[in-house]
Design brief:
alpha+beta, Nucleotidyltransferase, domain 5, 2 domains, six-stranded mixed sheet
Length: 261
């Protein structure tokens, strides 16, 4: 794509404590390029950082005064998540009110909305389309390796007040991995310990990572994501009734709070 403004982006996340970073490189038609190393984000997931790298890159594009001679903008990313879903974010999810066909909320909806808004603004301002291209990670592509290094460096500058979203996290009681479907809603009463709690602003619902702590329950020790219309605090234990007949786990009723960790 010799006539395109090419942008390489990357996002990175590391645990304990979770910190995220972003980096991107803009390559111009005259053979020059400019690297960008924004501050990192506290508590960010890898997908949040991949999206944020694209968002910040498009904001920089809007600062360019003259893009005459360019036929479009091509964002090169090693994120399969972005390449697989950006068209859904453009055409499908807004019509579905950012709910997937199985009833689960679209994660990172606020960022997806911002990304699409910027893409449309670039179209209105410069009459250019934004494309996304999947590139292989860690395979010797110089520009991609460069932004990988930028994202990891950005991670080191993360500070607590710089967050994409609020993820309240507490220590888990078990060492089990989170497995989707390990807790099934069957209309049953169950006792759960909340490990993480996040509020999804677009869908106005809470998404918690919970582990079953009622020993006689067949799902004892299972860790899964559960949706709740009411606030459930990380580190707290609740008796709840789960909804029956859904493809995902969702709370019908909070019976009572048992204790705080």
């Amino acid at each position: 794509m010799d006539d395109y403004l090419v942008i390489y982006t990357d996002g990175s996340s590391a645990p304990k404590p979770r910190k995220g970073g972003v980096g991107f490189r803009i390559l111009f038609l005259d053979g020059t390029y400019k690297d960008f190393l924004p501050n990192g984000y506290w508590g960010a997931t890898n997908n949040e950082m991949e999206l944020q790298a694209c968002i910040l890159a498009l904001k920089e594009v809007l600062k360019i005064n003259d893009l005459r001679g360019y036929k479009g903008i091509n964002i090169c990313t090693d994120s399969q998540y972005i390449v697989d879903h950006y068209k859904n974010a453009m055409f499908n999810w807004p019509k579905q009110k950012w709910i997937r066909s199985n009833g689960e909320p679209v994660l990172n909806a606020q960022q997806w909305k911002e990304l699409i808004r910027l893409m449309k603004r670039i179209g209105d301002t410069f009459h250019l389309c934004v494309n996304f291209e999947k590139v292989k990670a860690h395979c010797g592509i110089e520009d991609n390796e460069a932004v990988d290094g930028l994202a990891k460096s950005s991670r080191k500058t993360a500070f607590r007040s710089n967050k994409i979203s609020e993820h309240n996290v507490r220590r888990s009681k078990f060492k089990n991995k989170t497995v989707r479907g390990s807790i099934k809603g069957e209309g049953q009463r169950i006792r759960i310990h909340i490990v993480t709690s996040s509020y999804l602003k677009v869908q106005k619902i809470f998404r918690v990572k919970a582990e079953v702590v009622s020993e006689k329950n067949k799902y004892f020790g299972g860790t899964d994501f559960i949706l709740s219309e009411s606030l459930m605090r990380a580190g707290h234990v609740y008796d709840v009734i789960l909804k029956d007949g859904l493809d995902h786990c969702s709370i019908e009723k909070i019976v009572r709070e048992i204790k705080k960790e």
